[in-house]
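hey
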């Protein structure tokens, strides 16, 4: 019970968003975050690990100004959440297909420099992860049970495919970022604005 009291939000709210529901496939990279495997074969992520990693990600992001952070998400289920996150925090967001070289090729239209990268899924966002590796910036990645974590500096274990899960994750990150940076005293944007219907 004491562990639940230390969570960012209630255990029930995490469960309702399905942030803990993994896939039927599990990699050795994600085994430490898996709580159990259900009879139907789906792996379930540990909610206290998810909560701890969201806090760690917020602590990492807090050290950077909004213009020094880039969020990349090819996964369409996250577009509303990441765009709202960008709107609320002032952080640059790239929702859609990431063109390789955006961080490494100064001749490209839209070339951008960044000091830290956050991706919603290390596999579809692998071009951005590769660019970050080339320029030497840390990478935070939302990883489901089926992800590999090569070249990832901080893994946030979560259901990175669900709209509700991603909405909750980016709502929590936005809340922590703006509060820690002193941009607002109290975060008042409702969770619903981050979640696709």
């Amino acid at each position: 019970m004491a562990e639940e009291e230390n969570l960012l939000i209630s255990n029930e709210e995490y469960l309702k968003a399905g942030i803990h529901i993994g896939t039927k496939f599990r990699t050795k990279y994600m085994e430490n975050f898996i709580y159990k495997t259900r009879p139907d074969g789906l792996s379930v992520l540990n909610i206290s690990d998810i909560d701890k990693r969201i806090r760690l990600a917020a602590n990492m992001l807090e050290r950077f100004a909004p213009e020094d952070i880039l969020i990349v998400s090819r996964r369409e289920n996250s577009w509303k959440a990441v765009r709202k996150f960008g709107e609320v925090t002032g952080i640059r967001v790239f929702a859609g297909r990431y063109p390789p070289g955006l961080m490494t090729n100064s001749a490209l239209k839209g070339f951008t420099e960044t000091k830290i990268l956050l991706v919603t899924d290390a596999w579809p966002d692998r071009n951005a992860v590769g660019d970050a590796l080339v320029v030497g910036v840390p990478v935070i990645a939302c990883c489901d049970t089926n992800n590999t974590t090569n070249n990832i500096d901080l893994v946030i274990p979560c259901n990175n495919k669900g709209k509700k899960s991603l909405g909750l994750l980016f709502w929590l990150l936005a809340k922590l970022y703006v509060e820690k940076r002193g941009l607002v005293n109290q975060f008042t944007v409702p969770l619903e604005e981050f979640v696709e219907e």
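The mean pLDDT is 93. The CA atoms of residues 29 and 148 lie 6 Å apart.
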